[in-house]
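Lecture notes, part 5. Sequence design as translation. It can be helpful to think of inverse folding as translation between two languages: the language of shapes and the language of residues. The source text, in structure tokens, appears below.
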């Protein structure tokens, strides 16, 4: 049953001329689907509406080819075709009695217009302001005619949005795009009526809000996405000049690393102080995010008047049915976001978002997967799942729901596999949600039996005599150094001490003295292990052939925080260096550009370069199976045992194995008509 305190989340709220049925609002968020995949997008957004979100928005939606963020996927409203494509989404959202919002977007100096080839239109002529893009282009300075034209374009896009069926139309004035360039005194160097005083800098935003209000003529609500920052009083002065203009404020903070921060650095409800002050300056409803997954925190935010509506991007990706679960009091079914930003990473990589917690994200259309509905199997068969890490747990959960008799055998005394160790590392505690949610779901089914302390062998698998076997035995970190930058083992002295990451995580006999990490993996684990060792009092050196520590975490938006943390904790960093040779008390590094070598003292080494699949049992069973001396209906390997990767891949692999088991014909995903 729902707790009374949470009723507040289900009070309808007026947003200008429209009304949301509740306080759950999926704010605009990137999907990686963009204008190229209208069906994929429509189905994904529909499932959010089905899951109870009162409002479901698009991602950033370009008003004109002068705002072209290719090669990143973005939405657009340029022509009739685009209107038709968006109508698919709005129709599906409306089917579930939710409102559809569109975030009209003007790129400015942040984008390069690589596809449209039109010079980017910036507040001044300068190199692109996106700090992580090094395109050799510079923007054209907007002249008066361009500014006038922007008003026409925004108005025209707002009309197209109405035609596409949207209920809420945005003016997007943050995140470094054109309107924030106008607002910010550091980027706005204009000497005309659009630069200088706050009144001048805010002028364009005011004009666009008015143009949009005029375009929609009271038939849609007009929202404005805007940043305020408690440490920057001027943001409130600016806000005050606009505070009563739009029908809704979608507020955030200036620092994207906070707004979109990984759980390593940012916890739930982190924007509260900044947002609540702005809320006190307007009578219009305010929506804001904060990676809210706790109904108590959400209800408190509304009750205490910090905001009126609970905005969400990531929690709605991890659990599209979060509102309905709260509505129905099914609190322990909520699949909480772990704050890993794998979703965001894939958008930045130019592909549909995926999610560590929700393997169906991005597959709603292509594979017809649904985050809540799992079809039962009529077959009364048994499945032995070997290994209780993320992959094995997910496969067991899905198979349990499908009605199979499942035996889950785990060698250790605990379920969770790599997640147990990794969630104990600095900043990663929320990652244990991956395990906990799955165990909880499994415990709700009577047909999954768990066997701990059961190190399976080929013989014991045969003894169980199941109909199907799924091997999910994971992988082990290799110590030979082979990886991206070494095709053969790294040369090493016989007196050197090389420790595998697995034994380090298991806390077995850590040596004393200076430690050197060679990170050729390039994601979070190297930097996090370095911090873990610093906390244990070690003198740590960190070597990477990449230009930055944990280079891939650029995609998850944690690169800067992570590198700053390493620098501040005193780790000695050697970037752009390969590990050439390991001696007894030092290593030889080689510059990846010049080949110039240097000696660095180290008493022991932790190579983080690759993992070896633990597939011995699988291979032995497979040869018996192939020679028909083992009777099984199917035998597969999944997760890291099949191909070591990120946790999201292991969960995906477990889900796929579970959902597809026993199906004679699996409709192969359609790569056309996306
Ligand atoms: P994944 O990410 O693919 O799920 P993990 O390494 O996290 O992989 O988990 C694999 C799990 O399999 C670990 O908990 C490990 O203890 C377990 N395991 C490995 N070998 C066996 C085995 N022979 N019998 C039972 N469990 C095993
Ligand atoms: Fe949350 Fe990670 Fe899923 Fe993104 S990928 S929604 S951060 S769990």
């Amino acid at each position: 049953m729902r707790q009374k305190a949470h009723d507040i989340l289900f009070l309808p709220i007026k947003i200008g001329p429209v009304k949301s049925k509740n306080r759950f609002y999926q704010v605009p968020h990137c999907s990686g689907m963009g204008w190229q995949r209208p069906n994929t997008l429509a189905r994904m957004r529909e499932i959010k509406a089905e899951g109870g979100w009162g409002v479901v928005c698009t991602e950033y939606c370009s008003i004109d080819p002068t705002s072209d963020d290719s090669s990143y996927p973005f939405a657009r409203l340029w022509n009739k075709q685009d209107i038709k494509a968006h109508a698919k989404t709005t129709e599906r959202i409306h089917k579930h009695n939710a409102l559809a919002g569109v975030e009209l977007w003007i790129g400015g100096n942040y984008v390069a217009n690589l596809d449209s080839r039109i010079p980017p239109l910036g507040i001044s002529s300068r190199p692109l302001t996106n700090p992580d893009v090094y395109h050799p282009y510079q923007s054209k300075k907007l002249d008066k005619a361009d500014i006038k034209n922007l008003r026409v374009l925004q108005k025209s896009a707002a009309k197209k949005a109405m035609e596409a069926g949207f209920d809420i139309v945005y003016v997007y004035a943050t995140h470094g795009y054109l309107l924030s360039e106008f607002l910010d005194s550091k980027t706005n160097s204009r000497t005309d009526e659009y630069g200088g005083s706050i009144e001048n800098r805010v002028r364009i935003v005011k004009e666009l809000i008015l143009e949009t209000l005029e375009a929609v003529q009271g038939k849609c609500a007009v929202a404005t996405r805007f940043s305020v920052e408690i440490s920057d009083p001027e943001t409130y002065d600016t806000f005050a000049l606009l505070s009563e203009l739009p029908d809704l404020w979608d507020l955030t903070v200036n620092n994207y690393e906070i707004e979109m921060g990984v759980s390593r650095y940012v916890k739930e409800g982190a924007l509260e102080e900044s947002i609540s002050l702005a809320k006190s300056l307007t009578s219009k409803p305010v929506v804001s995010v904060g990676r809210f997954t706790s109904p108590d925190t959400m209800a408190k935010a509304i009750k205490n008047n910090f905001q009126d509506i609970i905005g969400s991007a990531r929690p709605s990706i991890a659990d599209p049915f979060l509102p309905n679960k709260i509505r129905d009091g099914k609190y322990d079914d909520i699949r909480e976001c772990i704050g890993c930003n794998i979703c965001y990473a894939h958008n930045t990589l130019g592909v549909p978002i995926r999610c560590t917690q929700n393997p169906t994200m991005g597959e709603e259309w292509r594979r017809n997967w649904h985050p809540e509905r799992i079809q039962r199997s009529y077959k009364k068969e048994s499945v032995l799942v070997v290994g209780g890490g993320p992959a094995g747990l997910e496969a067991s959960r899905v198979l349990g729901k499908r009605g199979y008799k499942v035996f889950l055998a785990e060698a250790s005394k605990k379920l969770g596999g790599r997640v147990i160790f990794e969630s104990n590392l600095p900043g990663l505690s929320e990652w244990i949600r991956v395990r906990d949610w799955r165990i909880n779901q499994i415990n709700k089914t009577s047909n999954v039996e768990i066997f701990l302390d059961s190190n399976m062998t080929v013989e014991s698998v045969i003894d169980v005599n199941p109909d199907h076997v799924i091997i999910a035995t994971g992988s082990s970190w290799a110590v030979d150094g082979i990886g991206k930058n070494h095709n053969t083992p790294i040369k090493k002295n016989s007196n050197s001490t090389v420790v595998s990451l697995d034994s380090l995580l298991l806390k077995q006999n850590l040596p004393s003295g200076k430690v050197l990490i060679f990170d050729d993996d390039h994601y979070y684990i190297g930097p996090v292990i370095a911090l873990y060792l610093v906390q244990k009092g070690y003198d740590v050196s960190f070597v990477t052939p990449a230009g930055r520590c944990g280079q891939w975490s650029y995609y998850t938006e944690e690169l800067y925080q992570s590198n700053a943390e390493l620098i501040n904790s005193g780790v000695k960093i050697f970037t752009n260096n390969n590990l050439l040779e390991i001696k007894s008390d030092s290593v030889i590094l080689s510059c990846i550009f010049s080949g110039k070598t240097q000696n660095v003292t180290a008493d022991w080494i932790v190579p983080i370069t690759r993992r070896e699949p633990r597939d011995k049992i699988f291979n032995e069973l497979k040869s018996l199976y192939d020679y028909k001396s083992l009777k099984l209906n199917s035998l597969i390997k999944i997760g890291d045992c099949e191909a070591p990767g990120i946790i999201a891949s292991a969960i995906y692999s477990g889900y796929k194995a579970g959902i597809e088991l026993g199906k004679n014909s699996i409709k192969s995903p359609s790569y056309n008509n996306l």
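The translated text above is only one of many valid answers, since several sequences can fold into similar shapes. The mean pLDDT is 96.
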